[in-house]
Amino acid sequence: MSRISINNIIGNLYNIAESMELGVLIINNLGTIIKCSKNIETVLQMNELVGKNWDTIKSKGRVCANYQKDGIRFYRIRFNNETVLIKELNVGTAECARIQFWLNNEKPSRMMNELQNLTEENKMLKAMMEFQGIIVCDLQGRIIYINEEAAKRVGVNAKSVMLQKVQDLNPECQMESVAQTGVPKLGKIMYLNGSYVPVMLFPLFIDGKIEGTVARSVFTDINEAKNYIKIIRDALKAHTDIDFNKNQSNDAKYNFDNIIGVSKEICFAKELALQAAQSDASVLLLGETGTGKELFAHAIHSASLRSNMPFVRVNCASIPETLLESELFGYETGSFTGAKKGGKPGKFEIADKGTLFLDEIGDMNLNMQSKLLRVLQEGEIEKIGKSESVKVDVRIIAATNRNLAEMVRNGLFREDLYYRLDVIRIDIPPLRHRKADIEPITKHLNTKISAKYGKNIIKISQDVLDLFNKYFWPGNVRELANVIEGTVCLLQGNIIDIESLPSNFLKRYFDTRPPICNMTQYNSGVGQRRVILDDELEEERIKKALEITSGNKRQAAIVLGVARSTFYEKLKKYGIKYG
Q1: What's the pLDDT tens digit per position in 213-229?
Q2: Which of the four, 44, 155, 392, 457, has the lowest number of CB atoms within 10 Å?
Q3: Are residue 355 and residue 283 in the same domain, yes or no?
């Protein structure tokens, strides 16, 4: 179905409602009414319902019945001495979550007849509802219903997976978290072809109590999802006609479920970030390269009240100093040689009402720091070539791997800007300080990367996990992802063992091991001392390689990057007997 057809369907529903006893109400996923027929306002004896909360309105009436049949929710509610029957459909998008048809309880037949005689375009809406894949889980995350369409897309037999844990079927689905929080969210399900497709996750309410979660997907693949979701969302949010030329790229890609880890260090950082998301205060993310600072920035925006507004990222280190001002604040036509005709909005303007993520803030020069400080103080920007200021409402998240406090002491970073940014500080721990997270992150990356390359890698050997736990990980999670991807790409079998790890990683592993010998314990000549040290170090490395490979000499030789014959010669030289 085309995007225009979807918009026309909603418009035609209103035309049909005009000829019926009551009308149509459209509600977004926050429970806010975004469209309402006039005759509904008459029944409720209320004006201007658009923008009000549906649950608040519903509480003013008396609910006589509330039940579900064939995937459709029915309410019987009494308002102002008049009883109405409400038929509620879940559309499956975040912003147009539900459409309600209001029927006069005394004369329901006429409306039902009208609904059965919809135009062809409105029949498409019904077809769209029937086409989607649906999975329902109980509070324990067990599958209690899966329709044939969902089973076909996921690649399972519908009957065989009943009462199976949905996490076993799709580890990243996140249905249990929705049942726990009662908050709808966008999740993802891995289809048979290995691609992840977005699904809307809703809490399942029965008699006002959460009894499980419903996962609903209307898309057959990720490309179809990308084509529809953002355009429909933005159009409904703006309450205007769809603008097909609108840039749809400024959105957060991740949420807190994408931050993998069970260690107390990462859990503390996530909890602090989740609290930060509830305010508009500036956030400063500190951490080494590869720790996931950008992931945290996305997650904070996704959990904030600004989540439906733009998330704009600027890497302050990658943009030349001469261009950074125009990139942040924009420019007018003819403001400088080579300026684009019609001018260009800056990142602040694009991020208005949303979040601006300033990555690598420690690389910004002092001149730009002064201009950024003014924007944060005044809440307005000045485009290059324009005299008057433009008001902006932007939440700032900044990140750096540098020590800003030390830079302030050395005069390299403005102290006043530092305190403007450092309202809520979140220190993201390096991977070597959260050893408990290495195994779950490794398994998560293996699942994700294996699907990307169409591989069926079912196991990671314990030897590999042990080696990973002993490694220093100077590149943190980014380095771990690099190692897993390199391994998966070249792996011939379906088990990751030490032999399959990239040789450049194994070299880094031994190069970053701390020195074994203390040179000062030798009292003979310098040259002899060097030889003794090299021999001691070599012997220790051989023993270490045998240890991490559980005595497998062939694997130990591979780990050390030497021929097997050379390895056996070294064993003989040092008198090493293992196993």
Answers
A1: 888 875 655 555 555 55
A2: 155
A3: yes
